[in-house]
Please model this.
Amino acid sequence: MKQNKEKGFTLVELLVVVAIIGILAAIVLVSLNSARGRARLGSLQATLASTTTLAALCTNDGSSVSTPTSATVGGGDICDDTSITAEVWPSLQSQSLGGSNSPYSYTTTSDTTVSSSDSAGVAVTCTVATGSCIRN
Model:
């Protein structure tokens, strides 16, 4: 009797390889999603830190910090006295990733703090005097 041996992979072996590739792809997608959220938060912190520097210039010269025209779109002068700085509040809509992630919005703007949060409760508060930002 002569045996006929063909070279190649069986169907079961190919299915196992496809399943392993699928599991690895799922792991990569989950880790990318969390990295995207951290990048979004870092971008918000940088935006708010830049506004606190301008707010400090304003308060150091005896003027006061104004509120943004819109909570998410920003707009309006940061300082009541535009001779000190004519910068406007930046938009926070660009911080959004779209989809289920809501954009950040300004929640507090005063002579001492600038803060922002999203609908999930992730918030960042920056202190005008020190220029430091923390995640709440």
The mean pLDDT is 84. The beta strands are 105-109, 113-117, 123-127, 133-135. The helical segments are 11-60. The two ends are 77 Å apart (CA to CA).
